[in-house]
Structures are given as structure tokens and as C-alpha cells.
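User: Show me a protein chain along with its predicted structure.
Assistant: Here is one chain, sequence first, then C-alpha cells.
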Amino acid sequence: MVRLRFAAPGRRWPAWLLAIAWALLLAGMPWWTGLPLLLGLAAIQAIQLPRLQRYNGMLRPALRWGLAGLLAAGFRAFDNHGLGLTLTALAALAGFTLLVLLESWQDHKPQRSAAAAAASPEWSELAQAPIGPSGTLIELQAPDWITLDSAATKVLGDVAMLDARSCIVGAAARIDNIELKVSVAPGRRWLAWPMAAWRGVVLYDRADGKLYRLRSWQLYGWHAGEAWLSRSEEQPPLALSHVLGQDQRDE
């Protein structure tokens, strides 16, 4: 459900007055004039330009209240009030459904804040930028996935299968709900398994005996014995030490 309200409590009454005025303005205009305005606002919100992200708090209420005003303008355009009420109800259902989907997509789509975007270049720009003498080039070693079977367990030594979704490391470290594939870090300190259905990655630190389950992350590669993880092709990979600061899941 879309709640037609502004989030800032200190500006509640001015915000309500502006919202009602905006809705009444569109309600008094012909619907074919208000529709392009709302479509333009929706396009601005969908594009998510970094310099316009600070206005996101105003765009959402403007779309919500503007849609209400547009529906009122559309109802007024019908001489047959019965037919107009039916079509307006259908338009309201479709319009608010699309608005909810747009806001949900925007909330869940990974994005950088305007300040971060201004302070640092895009990942694609970093990948194509020339490397100066003070730059540090990090070359990741792609993970080599080994299928866990009787032959692999002999090579790995302390890793043994238990069933189709579990294995054991050493004498007591049991790993459940995984794909039977393992990647070993250079130096053999870290082991990595994909979660069942590749929903994330499981990492085990042999030195400290700690287990980490990280949903939505995938092993991208190894560097200096440390795992580098990625969530999507749109984002650069991050070192495990950075990921654990926000998404640590100990078992």
C-alpha cells in the first residue's frame, strides 16, 4: 500500500499543504496535460541520476499525490459518471501498482549516494583508467572449483563428504547446505563453498576455525590469500575483510 505522506515530521503541515495543492492543480488541469508531467517525474526517478538523488524525497510524494490528482482529472473528463468511475478505479489500481513496483525496484537496486558518486568514479571508469606510478594493481586469481568426491577428499586431506549437501573439515567443523564444490585459497588457509543453489558463499578459516555464511555474495577470486567477493556484475569485488564489516554471518 502506498501511504500519501511526507517523511519529515518537522515539516508536516507545510508538506501536507503543498501535496494537496499539487494534487488539486493536476485535478483542475486536463488529464492529457498532467499525464506527461507525471511520466516525466517517473522517468527522472527511474533513471536515478546521481545529481538528482537528493531530490528523491520530493519526487516520491509528488508522484503519489500527482497520481491522485490525475485520477480526479480523468474522472471529470467523463460525462457518463458510471463508466468514468469504473475506468478511474482501474486506472488507480494500475497506476499505484506501477508506482509501488517502481519504488520497490528503486529501494532494492544497488546504488551509490550522490556524495559517494561525486567523490569517486564509476567501477567501469576505474577499470579503463590508466595506472599511474603510485597506483596499486590488484590481480585476482580466479577460483578453481573442485568437485568434492572421493578423489578430491584425498587431495584436500582434511575435507570429507557427509552427504549430497554437507561435508566436514577436520574432526568437528561441519558445513551444511552447500554445493559439493570447494575452492582453496593460495596458502590453503581459506576454503570456500557455494551455498545450496548458489544463494551465497560459505568461507572457513582453517587457522582460526571460524565459519562465515554470506548470503547474496559470490566468490570472485583470491588475492594474497584473502577472498574477494561480489554481489553483481555492476559492482566491483570487495575484500572479505571489508564485507565482514557489514554482512558477517557466523555459524
